[in-house]
Amino acid sequence: MKNNKINLLHKYILNKNVLEFGLGDYHPKDENNFVYHLNKFSKNYTGIELNEKRAKSFQKKNINVICGNAETKKLNKKFDTLVADNFIEHIDNPGIFLENCKSHMKNGSYLILSTPNAFSINRLIMGLLRFGNLPQYKEHVFLFTPQLLTELLRRKKYKIISYNYYNNDSNNIKGYFIKYFSKISKYFSEYFVIIAKLK
Q: All domains of the chain, ordered by start, with CATH?
């Protein structure tokens, strides 16, 4: 069974021309793997990856990946769907990135942004237990809430189509705890997804 994120986004990927920024790991034949899913179910798939070694590893698997900086790389091509999956929190200049996305979009194109939720229940609890000194993932330079990312998109002239929330598919005690609180309020979820278009 596909995971929550894939279920949410499948209709925006199926038979579409897709551009993805910053690729995750690739696991062949694993339908729950996001890169595998995008590559398999899109009409045409292109990825932009900053790390040259990583880009070449995808190219060896016959996946169309171009080495470049997502904030500045221009492909002179328009896509139906642009995907930045757990990516915007890694980059130096999210605003510049959103401007660059426009150069790859046409009327009717979708921009899909997923990112960790700064106020997820697990972050809130761990922050309290650590008296506010919560370690962050070393490659992250930003944390977003839906409201903050919405404001950034508004400034860059995007129209919000939908908000979605999801959790990891963990079946351990922590996973059940997060899912329980996410049912009380979706704003406690681990991640959120914003789907946007150009105004």
A: 4-118+139-172+189-198 (3.40.50.150)
